[in-house]
Amino acid sequence: MYRFLLTPRWWGINLFVALAIPVCLFMGTWQLSRFEARVDSHQQQEKAAERAADATPEPLADLLPLTTETVGRTAETTGRYDTGRPLLVPDRRVDGERGFYVLTLLRTDSGPALPVVRGWLPGDADPAKVPAPPGGEVTVAGVLQVSETEGSAGVHPAGGLPEGQLGMISAAALVNVVPYDVRDAWITVQRPEAPLRPVPPVAAAGTGLDLQAFQNLGYTAEWFAFVGFVLFMWFRLFRRDAELARDAALGLPPEDPTGRRTPENAPAAGGSASGESREGGGPGEGVTPEPREAPEGAAGRTRSPSGAA
């Protein structure tokens, strides 16, 4: 009864199902692993932010270039602050309060200068509020952060800020402000001098539970749902063809598109109204039926078929 499975049509259907299911399972598992990696990275970033103030500093050179694993770790380097070019980053919020970052470039003997966010102060960006950076050679430790982009919170990519203010912390923005090379990364000091407050580190893009992470979770559900859809359609086609094969084995006629059984020997047009067969010269075959007698009129006369008296 299941010999229809050996037809070319069913060979194609079975081949498609055999290939589609592993592919969907692989893609769904891969999307799920991407989401789980985002969750793990987010948890690591949160733990690193919690212990940033007490973390043991590592040499800056050992943590560069930045990766998703080194972002958020505490780096340490030695150099001299560029006291002649103090910079302020306005409209930055810490704990929901509006203020500004205090940014100073640290000139090192090895490699480009390192942007250092020494702390945060509330209110409008005012150089008079900012304590002067220490002079001479200093050792600075802070949490490594990736350069900001136009989509980062509080960024002013359009520019138009007063002199001494910076809209975005990145090497691309600093290249037009200072005459020397700047690293494409920055650190935020977690133990600043008073009255500066520490700037909490943030997770790098692509490492937290953002919209992209939940898109990965949605794609996972879609791929697994497609596996169920493929199995459902295969079973539906199989059941239909199995029923047709069973009916054919029992000698039953197939159904028409409306779902009704189609008789194999339907009566010809104009045949017997009762559906009885008249094969073999049965009674009445080939005989013209007698016209019925016309009813009598009111006067007892018989009416002709045309209605004339």
Please explain how this structure is put together.
It contains four helices and seven strands. It is α+β, with helices and mostly antiparallel strands. Strands 2-4-5-7-6 form a five-stranded mixed β-barrel.
Order of helices and strands: HEHEEEEEHEH
Sheet with the most strands, sense and barrel status: 5 strands, mixed, barrel
**Unreliable stretches covering 5 or more consecutive residues:** 265-287, 297-309
* C-alpha-based Rg, rounded: 43 Å
Mean of all residue-level pLDDT scores: 81
Which percent band covers the strand fraction?
A: 15-25%
Order of strands, main sheet, comes to 2-4-5-7-6
Secondary-structure-based class equals alpha+beta
Shape: rod-shaped
Percent of residues in helical segments? 25-40%
In whole angstroms, how far apart are the ends?
A: 71 Å
Number of strands: 7
DSSP summary: helix tally: 4
